[in-house]
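Lecture notes, part 5. Sequence design as translation. It can be helpful to think of inverse folding as translation between two languages: the language of shapes and the language of residues. The source text, in structure tokens, appears below.
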């Protein structure tokens, strides 16, 4: 039994955890093994001719009390595609992102990520899928203040059961790629806003996820740092191949993306 703090939710929390031995990296040599690891044999999806689909969501609905926030949303994204979602505050963008990222459950609809019906996953299986397949970057970095930049990046790798040597080597390589080779031992309070967000991005990438979700990732940054961060997402996509879904109010970032969707009152109105 180990104890660690999870940086994956809007609130950090600490609790004991045990990690099942799924191996240090990857998902094995076949999709069948992939599905079997989650205990959901028979839930694999075949997308037919388009085998490049990474995310397929259909009919997503979500209400809070009597307020219907999402009204039958359909959404898809291909492997290595960068998609932005724009819209006014309250349109449902962040709610949709939380559902796509498995942080929230829809009232209705289906969600398949990398061929897996994620809504069929429960408990530990869902937590392990999220830890290994999905990365999150939020507007606020949510770095743990008592840990260094290097330690913050390593935490998801430890949760995934990877060795200290493997996690440290991977974390150092990511931080170096992100221009933070001289900041390994710095705590969040000793970093600039842009550096803190880059550490958060490295943490999101440490387990080589299939999808990276970003919710207003540059919302708290100055113009110059914001521009650098925007370019960074595309550099990372080209190098690591993740599908990246970004919720943003920034039209310049949206224009850089492969596709841009616009939400009004819980529905997409244009692309």
């Amino acid at each position: 039994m180990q104890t660690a703090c999870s940086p994956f939710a809007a609130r950090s929390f600490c609790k004991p955890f045990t990690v099942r031995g799924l191996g240090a990296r990857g998902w094995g040599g076949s999709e069948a093994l992939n599905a079997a690891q989650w205990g959901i044999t028979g839930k694999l999806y075949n997308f037919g001719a388009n085998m490049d689909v990474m995310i397929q969501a259909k009919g997503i609905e979500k209400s809070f009390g009597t307020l219907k926030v999402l009204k039958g949303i359909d959404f898809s994204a291909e492997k290595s595609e960068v998609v932005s979602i724009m819209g006014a505050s309250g349109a449902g963008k962040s709610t949709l992102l939380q559902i796509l990222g498995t942080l929230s459950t829809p009232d209705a609809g289906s969600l398949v990520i990398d061929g897996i019906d994620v809504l069929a996953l429960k408990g530990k299986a869902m937590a392990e899928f999220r830890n290994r397949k999905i990365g999150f970057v939020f507007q606020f970095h949510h770095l743990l203040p008592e840990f260094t930049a290097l330690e913050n990046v390593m935490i998801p790798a430890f949760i995934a059961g990877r060795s200290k040597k493997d996690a440290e080597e991977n974390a150092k390589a990511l931080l170096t790629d992100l221009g933070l080779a001289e900041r390994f031992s710095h705590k969040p309070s000793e970093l600039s806003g842009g550096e803190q967000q880059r550490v958060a991005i490295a943490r999101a990438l440490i387990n080589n996820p299939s999808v990276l979700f970003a919710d207003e990732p540059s919302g708290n940054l100055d113009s110059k740092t914001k521009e650098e961060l925007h370019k960074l997402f595309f550099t990372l996509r080209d190098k690591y191949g993740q599908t990246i879904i970004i919720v943003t109010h920034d039209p310049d970032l949206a224009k850089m993306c492969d596709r841009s969707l616009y939400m009004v009152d819980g529905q997409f109105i244009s692309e």
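The translated text above is only one of many valid answers, since several sequences can fold into similar shapes. The CA atoms of residues 171 and 260 lie 31 Å apart.
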